[in-house]
Specification:
This protein is of the alpha/beta class and 629 residues long. Helix content is 33%, strand content 24%. The protein has a domain of 128 residues: ANL, C-terminal domain (GMP Synthetase, Chain A, domain 3, 2-Layer Sandwich). Helix 3 runs antiparallel to helix 4. Bound molecules: adenosine monophosphate (AMP).
Length: 629
Amino acid sequence: MTYQHCYDRSIADPAAFWADQARDLAWFRQPTQTLSEGPDGTHQWFADGCLNTCYLALDHQIEQGRGEQIALIYDSPVTATQQTFTYNQLRDEVARLAGLLRELGVKQGDGVIIYMPMVPQAAMAMLACARIGAVHSVVFGGFAANELALRIDDARPALVLTASCGLEFDRVIAYKPLVDRALQLAQHQPRKVLVLQRPQARAELLEGRDLDWHSALAGAQPVAPVELAAADPLYIMYTSGTTGKPKGIVRENGGNAVALRFTLRHIYGMQAGDVWWGISDVGWVVGHSLIVYGPLMNGCTTVFYEGKPIRTPDAGAYWRVVEQYKVNGLFCAPTAMRAIRKEDPEGQLLRQYDLSSLRQLFLAGEKLDSSTHHWLETASGKAVHDHWWQTETGWPVTAPCVGLEGSGVRPGSSNRAVPGYHVQVVDDDGHLLGPNQQGSIVIALPLPPGCSQTLWGDHPRYLQAYLRTYPGYYHTGDGGYLDDDGFVYIMGRTDDVINVSGHRLSTGEMEDLVACHPAVAECAVVGVHDEIKGQVPLALVVLKDGESIAEHALQSELVARVREQIGALACFNQVRLVKRLPKTRSGKILRAVLRKIADHQPYTAPSTLDDPAVLLEIENVLASLARAG
Ligand code: AMP
């Protein structure tokens, strides 16, 4: 199958294309209707199909003869644990846990909050919910109590599943007090809280409400997967919106199963029996699509890693895992690779490991700057691919499809649209723009299967946030352009575009140039207010370990570089060294906060910030800038 053939067909006749993709899925009832449109512009895929995601991920794989294949490898350097589960073992664990959930009164359609670290029981909990048609919402273990409370009030769970603690490098983080606090703050109360006790910190159980995971499970009876409609929700994944209330992205069972089958096979080139490593956390969309559901529904072995890129024990940790489990393909975020590079710039640790099993590396979550891209490709000797997607889509929008012939790769871009996604660029008035013209990136409707079609309990907000800005299109919120050959260049969120003397400029483009400097580990470019020009860019730079270049020397080199590459119109004149950049726990630089600080506007430190102290340093740097100005 060629990429071009697939792509053209998926756009010309989406229903026929996806009906073909759906045909060999092990449905309980094959859909006869592939695509229907609602009056509000949303779409329904496979309306009359029936299936069960947990069945597809476990029971069906066993029926295909994979019962004794390893389904999940738990590798936890933070607890010195390595454990494997075959498909048979995982199915048995999940079926019993599903039985327990049902005994505890969880019914089909009920919400279940999972607030757990990267322990295999978190994956089991997700699959157990899927087995009985409960709708799980995994909340990233690092979220504070008030964020958890917001999600509890929105998802209204019948049950909360948690663990006594999570582990960070050498630090133990007690989870249970956070759950207790969240339940004090929340209006909604779950019937029970199921607590997995970990030996590193045992939790106090509240009589009558809290249950010990293992004792409760001891008497539970296994249950079979239930038959669900394609449109029945599989999970809710909360993501930040423009207001304080998180958006509950809803993923449907049917579309998700078809999309992830396509994703693993044709984008990542994975076959049943391959070892796949989605390096993320179950608390993010990658954890759903690429740690749990995608690899298991495709008969792969999934690596489930409770560790970090560095300090567990060193920057060779990822390569150790690749060698040990003969990983064939992996996904990771650029921020992790930058952390590894900072500590192992010459790739000395990397070279100690045998990476021969690894076919390629896929990176996403933020722009893959060309400097990190080049370093990783050179150090690993492997193909490194940038690709772009969002929580809302659940699977890649642009990517090289390594499982399809002739999909092509263009370093520097996040590659071409994946079959199913008609990616286009519009100006502020919604007019289509041509190649190489920068604007808002949109996807012509219908969105392919798997993309969210609603927000939990707030359909009007979905329509407003995604479909109303540019009628007929899904609004991605990202800016960028397509080149003459359809390769997509994501330049950052549309609000990261700065306007210098009337010129629209991408901070992402400047960041790329700054990051290529050999002394630079990481950087963020923000627009700061300028009396004459409106905005001018400022680069905040973190140096690599051991680098001692003076700020003014770095500044003159970078100014020359940006002037040469973008031009004097960028007015790029200011570079400041900082020790760290403010980031979310998932590693995204908090640009909106940086922008507010730069503009001397009031801001509230988001609860997703990993270390609030880091903002003080930035404030001081910007204050000194203002004084100097
Ligand atoms: P999330 O839903 O948290 O995964 O964030 C999705 C957003 O991350 C996108 O809308 C982009 O702004 C950004 N993003 C993800 N992947 C890339 C990429 N490969 N290049 C640039 N930005 C990306």
